[in-house]
Amino acid sequence: SCRFKDNINRTANKMAGLTYCCQANAVLGGASPAEAHKALLYGRHLGIAYQLVDDILDFVSLDDLKLGFASAPVFFAAEEFPQLDTMITRRLSAKRLKII
After folding, report:
1. What is the mean pLDDT of residues 82-88?
2. CA pair distance 1, 80, nearest whole angstrom
3. Global model pTM greater than 0.85
4. Which end of the chain is less enclosed by CB atoms within 10 A, N or C?
């Protein structure tokens, strides 16, 4: 879904420091441009994976939902359970929904 993809891109931007640190280390280590790009992608994917695990832990504990946050696991679950869309649309019981 579009919301899920947007959330993944936002997550990647939150973890941009890791992404560019991986690329910078490759460049400083004498890597070719292609290798430096692979290091950048590695950092991006590692950052996304870290954040998804963090979001899953929050989702299981319901902490994010209680605070009115919707994260990737919520959007992913909404694909399987459309009734979650109603909760998301209602902004989780009239709270202001924050997309993280």
Report:
1. 73
2. 11
3. no
4. N
Residues whose CB falls within 8 Å of the CB of residue 74, separated by 6 or more in sequence, listed in order: 59, 64, 65, 84, 88
Among the residues of 1-100, which ranges form H helices?
2-14, 16-28, 33-61, 63-67, 72-80, 83-89, 91-94
Distance CA 93, CA 57 (A): 22
Distance (Å, whole) CA 90 – CA 27: 47
Report the interhelical angle of 2-14 vs 16-28 (nearest 10°): 50
69-100: buried (b, 16+ CB within 10 Å) or exposed (e) per residue? bbbbbbbbebeeeeebeebbeeebeeeebeeb
Report the pLDDT value the prediction gives residue 27, as an integer from 0 to 100: 97
